[in-house]
Amino acid sequence: MERLPGFRDFYPEPLPHQDVWSADTRTYIFDAWRSVARRYCFREYDGPPLEPLELYTTKSGEEIVGQLYNFTDKGDRAVALRPEMTPTLARMVAAHARNYRKPIKWFAIPQLFRYERQQKGRLREHFQFNADIFGETDPAADAELIALLIDSLRALKLTAADFVIRLSSRDAWREFFKRGVGSAECGVEREYEFYQIIDKLAREDPAQTNSKLKALGFSLDAVNEFIAAGKPTAELDLILNNLSARGLAEFVKIDYNVIRGLAYYTGVVFEAFDKKGEFRAIAGGGRYDNLVKIISGGKVDLPGLGFGMGDVVLTELLKARGLLPPLNAHLHAFCLIEDEALRPASLKLIHDLREAGLTVDYSFVPTKPDKQFKRALELNAAFTVKLERTSTGEFALKVKNLKTREERVVDTARAAAFLLADK
Amino acid sequence: MERLPGFRDFYPEPLPHQDVWSADTRTYIFDAWRSVARRYCFREYDGPPLEPLELYTTKSGEEIVGQLYNFTDKGDRAVALRPEMTPTLARMVAAHARNYRKPIKWFAIPQLFRYERQQKGRLREHFQFNADIFGETDPAADAELIALLIDSLRALKLTAADFVIRLSSRDAWREFFKRGVGSAECGVEREYEFYQIIDKLAREDPAQTNSKLKALGFSLDAVNEFIAAGKPTAELDLILNNLSARGLAEFVKIDYNVIRGLAYYTGVVFEAFDKKGEFRAIAGGGRYDNLVKIISGGKVDLPGLGFGMGDVVLTELLKARGLLPPLNAHLHAFCLIEDEALRPASLKLIHDLREAGLTVDYSFVPTKPDKQFKRALELNAAFTVKLERTSTGEFALKVKNLKTREERVVDTARAAAFLLADK
Known about the structure:
The structure is a homodimer.
Chain A: E1 10-11, E2 21-22, H1 23-39, E3 43-44, E4 50-52, H2 54-60, E5 70-72, E6 78-81, H3 86-96, E7 104-108, E8 111-113, E9 125-134, H4 139-154, E10 163-169, H5 170-180, H6 191-199, H7 206-215, H8 220-229, H9 234-245, E11 252-254, E12 268-274, E13 283-287, H10 291-295, E14 304-310, H11 311-320, E15 331-336, H12 343-355, E16 360-362, H13 369-378, E17 381-389, E18 395-401, E19 407-410, H14 415-421
Parallel strand pairs in A: 1-2, 3-7, 10-11, 15-16, 15-17
Antiparallel strand pairs in A: 4-6, 5-6, 7-9, 8-9, 9-14, 10-12, 12-13, 13-14, 17-18, 18-19
C-alpha cells in the first residue's frame, strides 16, 4: 500500500531511500524556528487543521476552492484542510483579542494542504513557520518581524551570502497606482488587478504585461523605472534604520518587484530569497491591517502583520549549501550485558542513567559481546558502560570512552554525572 | 466565524476563555514525551495525516468507515484523515524494514481524527504519543515499552498513587478460549467475537454478557473466576520481573479485564488508568505481531508492539491532580528604553542578548518609563536592562533583578553571561 501522491513520510536517519524525508532534519529545523521565536518573545499557538470552507472563501473569494482539499463532512458542513494559517489566526485573535495585552506576538508551525490538479509530482502539504504581530501600526513592529525572519535563517547557519530579504511596500505601489487613477482606463477599484500584474512581472512575457498595463493606463517602462529607482518610502527607511541598528543591514534590500499575490496585504511586504536564485521564495509576508476586521465581520479591528516560511524550499536550500548536520542516532551510553546474571542490575543501571537525563540503549536479549560492542558503535554511543562482579561480590562499573578507547572504573552512584561531564 | 465542533484552538497562557486549550500545556506535555522517548533511544518519525481509506479498511473492515473523516479527493481517491497511527507506521516500516537494524524503536506525536456522529460535544481530534518496537519477539521488548510508558507519565510528575498499568495477555485469553473450542457452540473462528465480549465486560449488563457468553459455550462465572485468579502467564512473569529490576514494580498489576478492542493485538496487552477511576484509559497498547504482514500484503513479516497515549485524558488528569505548572510568559530580560536617542543602541543590545540565547522583549514605540516597567512585570521578566549615557559619553548598562530589586551596572560585553548566571 502506498501513501497518497504529494504527501511525505518522515523517517529517522540514515534515510532508507531517496523518496522519503528526514524526520531528524524536520526536528532540527523546527527546533531552530521555535528557539528563535521564543528568544523574540513570540508565544506558540495552534488551531484546527480542518476549518469551515467559508473561512477561506470570505477572504480570498470562491476561486481559491479549486486549490483546496475541501469536502462535505458527515454533518453536511463544507470544510477544508487549511491551506494557510493566517485566516485561522485572525479568527482566533478576533475571538479573544481583548484578553491579551498588545502587541500580541505569536507563532505556530502548522501543516498546510493544497490540492492543485495541474501540479502532478509537486507536494500537496508542507509545514510552515508562521510568526505574526497584532496591535501595532508602527514600522518598529515590521522591523521586529523581519529581524525574526532573518535570525530564524541565521540560526540554521545561513549567512548574508546565502539569502536576502527583498523589502517592498503596497503603499509605494498604491502611490504609483493613484497617479494613473482617474484616467479613462483606470478606476480605483482596479487596484488589486494592477497588483496582480506586478506580481507576475518576472514570470510573464513583457509584451503581454505591457498590454495588460496599457489597458489600465500604465506603461511597462514607467513601471520598470519605478522599480529601478527603488526609492524607499519613509516607512521603509525607518525599517531599514531599525534593522541597521541591530546589525542586520546586509540581509535586506529594497526591491519593488515584490508585491505578494494575496489580496489582503496592505503595507510593507517582503520575501526571502536565496542569493543564487536557484530556489523559489524561502519565505514571504507583510502587513494585513484589515484582515481581522474582515474575518470578524467588522467586530474587531486590529492591525496585523506576519510571515510564513515553508519547510520544503528551506530544506532543499540547506541541503544544497551543505548546512544539514549529520543527524544519525547518538547515545550517551550503550550498556553491555555480558553476564546474564547481571541483567537485572544492568536494567536498574540503565533506568537510573535514563532517569538522570542520559540517552541509553542495550540489547534486549543475550547477545555475543562483540555484537553488542558493534551495536554501540553503530548507534554512535559516546561510552559503553558495563557492570562486573568483583572478587568481593560487589558491583564494579566499567566505563569506556569510545573515542579515546580509555576505560575507567566509576562509582555507580556517580556514573550519570561522570558521563554528562566527560561527554 | 466559529471553528468546527469537536476541534480545538490552542492559545498562549493565561487562557482567555474556558472554551479554549492551552498551547503551553500542550508544549509541556509534548516536551516530556519527546525527552523520555529519546532517553529510551526511540527515534521520531511522522507520516501523512491523510491516507488512502483502504489503509484502515484492510485492517479493521468496512465498519470503521462510520467513524472516519473520509471523503473522495479531486483525483477521485477514497481518502481519510488518520484515526490512528499504527497502520501508517506499519506501512512505513514494511516499505523500508530491511534498511534499519532491529530492533526498531520509533515514536511519533500525530494528530488523529474521528468523526462519530453520535458523540456530540466530544472531541473529534486529539494528539497521541505513539511508541513502537519492531523486530523483537522477546518479552524484554514488551517490558521496555511499558517502562517507557511509565516513565512518560512519571516525567509529568504522576506517581504510583496516581496511575497503574493494567497488564493482560491475549495469549492467556486464547488459552481460556481454547478450552471452550470444539463444543457445539464454539468454533475457533469465533475467537475475536469472544474477545469483544470480554472487552465490554465492565460496561455491559452482566445478564446480557452471560447470555452472549453462553451462546459461545462459556459462563460468566468461569470468566470472572479466571479474571479474579489473575495468574500471570510465563511471559507476563518475565515482564513483571524485568520491570521490578528497573524499580518499576509498583506501577503495574495483572488485570485480565483488559483485552483491548482492536482486532490486531496478538500477545501482551495493557492499559494505563488513573487510580481513582475518574477518567477513561490514559493509554493503551500491546503486541501486534501480524500487522506488518497484513499491511504489506504478506511481503514483510516483522513482529511489532506499541502503545498510544492521547493528550486529552492526560491533560484532564494532570489538571485534576494539580500537576500543570504555571506556563505564563517568562523572560530573561525586558529592555527599558527611556531615552529615545538610545533606541538604536538598545536595539543592538537586545539583538546581542537574543543572539546569546536569552529571551528579551521591549516596547516598540516610545512609552512612559512606568508603563514599560509594568510591562516587564506582566511578562514575568527576571531582569530589566537599561542603557544610559554616562557623563563621559560612554554607555552604561543598568541591570535590575526584579525579584530582589537589586540594581547593578554591568559591562555590556558581559551582560548575557551575567543574566544567564544570575537567573
